[in-house]
Amino acid sequence: MISRAVLVAGFAGPSPAGPCTVEIDRVQAQLDAKIDAEAGTGRSARESGRALRHEEPTPDSVLKAEESLGEGSASGAAMVALARARVADSTGDATACKEALAKARRALQP
Fold first, then answer.
1. pTM metric for this prediction
2. Element (H or E) spanning 7, and its range?
3. Would you give the distance in Å from CA 4 to the centre of its chain?
4. How far apart are CA 73 and CA 78, in angstroms?
5. Of 107, 105, 109, residue with least CA distance to 26
6. pLDDT tens digits, residue range 53-68?
7. Please, how many CA atoms are within 13 Å of residue 80, restricted to the half-sphere of its CB?
8. Contacts 24+ apart (CB under 8 A), 59-64
9. Quick one: how far is CA 32 from the chain centroid?
């Protein structure tokens, strides 16, 4: 038999934000702005087969293409750090989250 506490917890709704969710969102906005600013300023490359088949690029495929042109490594480092921050945030590890956010901010500095 399902206990009443488990049943109520299942209907409690979304869980509260982690210890640094708000700061993760801020750094993500900074990363998005950096990517947008750099998007049209770099060198161009030949379209890939996927692009010629009208397939949408993934963030990972865009990053790989930029890195092959010698661009995007700072954005990539920031993405990795933000992913680590999200994992730490989801487990409630404020210290690891803050460390990952500091790495992301350093990667975004000019």
1. 0.63
2. helix 4-10
3. 38
4. 9
5. 105
6. 777 777 677 667 666 7
7. 10
8. none
9. 9
